[in-house]
What does this fold into?
Amino acid sequence: MSEIHLQIDGRDVVAKEGTSILEAARNAGIAIPTLCHHEKLEPYGACRICTVEVEAGGRKNLVASCVYPVEQNLVVRTRSESVDEIRKMILELLLAHAPGAPALQDLAREYGASEASFEKEPSFCILCGLCVRYCAEVKKANAIAFADQGPRREINFIPKIASKECWNFKECFPLCPTSYLQAAYFLTEGLAFPPAPAPEE
Ligand code: SF4
Ligand code: FES
It folds into this structure.
Protein backbone atom coordinates (compact mmCIF):
# COMPACT_ATOMS: atom_id res chain seq x y z
CA MET A 1 0.00 0.00 0.00
CA SER A 2 1.54 3.30 -1.05
CA GLU A 3 2.14 6.32 1.14
CA ILE A 4 0.11 9.45 0.56
CA HIS A 5 1.57 12.84 1.40
CA LEU A 6 -0.87 15.61 2.18
CA GLN A 7 -1.16 18.73 4.25
CA ILE A 8 -3.66 19.10 7.09
CA ASP A 9 -3.97 22.49 8.78
CA GLY A 10 -0.56 23.46 7.44
CA ARG A 11 1.15 20.31 8.69
CA ASP A 12 2.75 17.71 6.43
CA VAL A 13 1.05 14.37 7.06
CA VAL A 14 1.81 10.93 5.65
CA ALA A 15 -0.98 8.35 5.54
CA LYS A 16 -1.55 4.96 3.96
CA GLU A 17 -3.54 4.87 0.75
CA GLY A 18 -7.22 4.26 1.50
CA THR A 19 -7.11 6.05 4.86
CA SER A 20 -9.87 8.60 5.40
CA ILE A 21 -8.98 12.24 6.02
CA LEU A 22 -10.53 11.87 9.49
CA GLU A 23 -8.26 8.96 10.36
CA ALA A 24 -5.18 10.69 8.95
CA ALA A 25 -5.97 13.84 10.92
CA ARG A 26 -6.58 11.95 14.15
CA ASN A 27 -3.38 9.96 13.71
CA ALA A 28 -1.59 13.29 13.42
CA GLY A 29 -3.26 14.57 16.60
CA ILE A 30 -5.64 16.92 14.77
CA ALA A 31 -9.21 16.82 16.11
CA ILE A 32 -12.29 16.76 13.86
CA PRO A 33 -15.76 16.46 15.46
CA THR A 34 -17.90 13.42 14.60
CA LEU A 35 -21.39 12.25 15.51
CA CYS A 36 -21.93 9.13 13.39
CA HIS A 37 -18.39 7.76 13.29
CA HIS A 38 -17.06 4.83 15.32
CA GLU A 39 -13.69 3.20 14.76
CA LYS A 40 -15.19 -0.31 14.91
CA LEU A 41 -17.84 0.46 12.28
CA GLU A 42 -17.86 0.96 8.54
CA PRO A 43 -17.88 4.69 7.67
CA TYR A 44 -21.42 5.96 7.31
CA GLY A 45 -21.22 9.63 6.30
CA ALA A 46 -24.61 10.59 7.73
CA CYS A 47 -24.16 13.53 10.08
CA ARG A 48 -21.69 15.66 8.04
CA ILE A 49 -20.37 17.37 11.18
CA CYS A 50 -16.90 16.09 10.17
CA THR A 51 -16.97 18.32 7.08
CA VAL A 52 -13.58 19.79 6.14
CA GLU A 53 -12.34 21.92 3.28
CA VAL A 54 -10.11 20.23 0.71
CA GLU A 55 -8.12 21.92 -2.01
CA ALA A 56 -6.63 20.17 -5.02
CA GLY A 57 -5.57 21.67 -8.35
CA GLY A 58 -6.74 25.10 -7.19
CA ARG A 59 -10.30 23.88 -6.51
CA LYS A 60 -11.85 23.94 -3.07
CA ASN A 61 -14.58 21.58 -1.90
CA LEU A 62 -16.34 20.72 1.31
CA VAL A 63 -16.28 16.98 2.01
CA ALA A 64 -17.19 14.60 4.84
CA SER A 65 -13.76 13.66 6.21
CA CYS A 66 -14.88 10.28 7.58
CA VAL A 67 -15.66 8.93 4.10
CA TYR A 68 -13.22 10.92 1.96
CA PRO A 69 -9.92 9.14 1.30
CA VAL A 70 -6.58 10.91 1.46
CA GLU A 71 -5.11 11.99 -1.87
CA GLN A 72 -1.57 12.85 -2.92
CA ASN A 73 -0.77 16.57 -2.24
CA LEU A 74 -4.29 17.32 -0.99
CA VAL A 75 -4.52 20.43 1.18
CA VAL A 76 -7.03 20.02 4.02
CA ARG A 77 -8.37 22.67 6.37
CA THR A 78 -10.29 21.33 9.34
CA ARG A 79 -11.40 24.85 10.36
CA SER A 80 -12.23 27.70 8.03
CA GLU A 81 -15.07 30.17 7.71
CA SER A 82 -17.05 27.84 5.44
CA VAL A 83 -16.32 24.74 7.53
CA ASP A 84 -17.42 26.48 10.74
CA GLU A 85 -20.52 27.87 9.03
CA ILE A 86 -21.65 24.47 7.78
CA ARG A 87 -20.99 22.80 11.14
CA LYS A 88 -23.00 25.56 12.84
CA MET A 89 -25.96 25.00 10.52
CA ILE A 90 -25.82 21.20 10.91
CA LEU A 91 -25.82 21.61 14.69
CA GLU A 92 -28.78 23.98 14.59
CA LEU A 93 -30.76 21.47 12.50
CA LEU A 94 -29.82 18.61 14.83
CA LEU A 95 -30.68 20.67 17.91
CA ALA A 96 -34.17 21.20 16.50
CA HIS A 97 -34.56 17.40 16.67
CA ALA A 98 -32.70 16.78 19.91
CA PRO A 99 -32.79 19.96 21.99
CA GLY A 100 -30.63 19.79 25.09
CA ALA A 101 -28.58 16.75 23.99
CA PRO A 102 -25.26 17.21 25.81
CA ALA A 103 -23.06 16.03 22.92
CA LEU A 104 -24.73 18.61 20.67
CA GLN A 105 -24.66 21.37 23.28
CA ASP A 106 -20.88 21.09 23.67
CA LEU A 107 -20.38 21.41 19.92
CA ALA A 108 -23.00 24.17 19.68
CA ARG A 109 -21.00 26.26 22.16
CA GLU A 110 -17.85 25.76 20.11
CA TYR A 111 -19.48 26.72 16.79
CA GLY A 112 -21.86 29.39 18.09
CA ALA A 113 -24.96 27.39 17.07
CA SER A 114 -28.29 28.45 18.51
CA GLU A 115 -31.11 26.11 19.49
CA ALA A 116 -33.61 28.74 18.38
CA SER A 117 -32.59 28.94 14.69
CA PHE A 118 -35.01 26.27 13.43
CA GLU A 119 -38.48 25.33 14.58
CA LYS A 120 -38.27 22.49 17.07
CA GLU A 121 -39.37 19.05 15.86
CA PRO A 122 -38.17 16.94 18.75
CA SER A 123 -37.73 13.32 17.82
CA PHE A 124 -34.65 13.06 20.08
CA CYS A 125 -32.97 10.71 17.61
CA ILE A 126 -30.57 12.29 15.14
CA LEU A 127 -30.46 9.13 12.99
CA CYS A 128 -26.71 8.76 13.33
CA GLY A 129 -27.20 5.00 13.05
CA LEU A 130 -24.52 4.20 15.65
CA CYS A 131 -26.86 1.94 17.63
CA VAL A 132 -28.22 0.07 14.59
CA ARG A 133 -24.79 -0.41 13.04
CA TYR A 134 -23.02 -1.36 16.31
CA CYS A 135 -25.67 -3.98 17.04
CA ALA A 136 -25.39 -5.39 13.50
CA GLU A 137 -21.67 -5.06 12.78
CA VAL A 138 -20.06 -5.60 16.20
CA LYS A 139 -22.59 -7.61 18.23
CA LYS A 140 -24.07 -9.39 15.18
CA ALA A 141 -27.40 -9.29 17.00
CA ASN A 142 -29.56 -7.00 14.81
CA ALA A 143 -31.79 -6.13 17.76
CA ILE A 144 -32.33 -2.56 16.53
CA ALA A 145 -33.34 -1.40 13.07
CA PHE A 146 -34.40 1.69 11.20
CA ALA A 147 -38.08 1.89 10.38
CA ASP A 148 -39.85 4.12 7.85
CA GLN A 149 -38.27 6.63 5.50
CA GLY A 150 -37.86 10.39 5.21
CA PRO A 151 -39.12 12.52 8.10
CA ARG A 152 -40.80 9.48 9.70
CA ARG A 153 -37.57 7.49 9.86
CA GLU A 154 -36.82 6.23 13.38
CA ILE A 155 -35.02 3.45 15.22
CA ASN A 156 -36.90 0.56 16.78
CA PHE A 157 -35.83 -2.30 18.99
CA ILE A 158 -37.07 -5.64 17.71
CA PRO A 159 -38.67 -7.03 20.87
CA LYS A 160 -38.23 -10.72 19.99
CA ILE A 161 -34.47 -10.28 19.53
CA ALA A 162 -33.94 -7.54 22.12
CA SER A 163 -35.58 -9.62 24.87
CA LYS A 164 -32.92 -12.30 24.34
CA GLU A 165 -29.87 -10.26 23.35
CA CYS A 166 -29.97 -6.97 25.22
CA TRP A 167 -29.91 -8.03 28.91
CA ASN A 168 -26.18 -8.46 28.97
CA PHE A 169 -25.04 -6.05 26.30
CA LYS A 170 -26.32 -2.48 26.37
CA GLU A 171 -22.86 -1.57 25.03
CA CYS A 172 -24.65 0.63 22.54
CA PHE A 173 -26.11 2.94 25.20
CA PRO A 174 -23.04 5.17 25.64
CA LEU A 175 -22.70 5.53 21.87
CA CYS A 176 -25.95 7.46 21.49
CA PRO A 177 -25.28 11.22 21.24
CA THR A 178 -28.77 12.08 22.51
CA SER A 179 -29.73 9.37 25.05
CA TYR A 180 -32.80 8.56 22.92
CA LEU A 181 -31.57 4.99 22.62
CA GLN A 182 -31.91 4.34 26.36
CA ALA A 183 -35.44 5.76 26.35
CA ALA A 184 -36.39 3.62 23.34
CA TYR A 185 -34.98 0.51 24.99
CA PHE A 186 -36.81 0.99 28.29
CA LEU A 187 -40.03 1.76 26.44
CA THR A 188 -39.67 -1.48 24.46
CA GLU A 189 -38.79 -3.35 27.61
CA GLY A 190 -41.81 -1.98 29.46
CA LEU A 191 -44.24 -2.66 26.63
CA ALA A 192 -42.96 -5.82 25.03
CA PHE A 193 -41.01 -7.93 27.47
CA PRO A 194 -40.79 -8.28 31.25
CA PRO A 195 -37.80 -7.01 33.23
CA ALA A 196 -34.84 -9.33 33.87
CA PRO A 197 -35.14 -11.55 36.93
CA ALA A 198 -33.29 -10.26 40.01
CA PRO A 199 -29.94 -12.07 40.53
CA GLU A 200 -30.06 -14.85 43.12
CA GLU A 201 -28.55 -13.98 46.55
S1 SF4 B 1 -31.02 6.28 18.96
FE1 SF4 B 1 -29.13 7.46 19.33
S2 SF4 B 1 -27.47 6.15 18.52
FE2 SF4 B 1 -29.41 5.39 17.63
S3 SF4 B 1 -29.63 6.44 15.65
FE3 SF4 B 1 -30.76 7.66 17.19
S4 SF4 B 1 -29.29 9.19 17.93
FE4 SF4 B 1 -28.08 7.61 16.87
S1 FES C 1 -18.81 11.69 11.28
FE1 FES C 1 -18.54 11.98 9.15
S2 FES C 1 -20.54 12.15 8.42
FE2 FES C 1 -20.83 11.75 10.53
The mean pLDDT is 93.
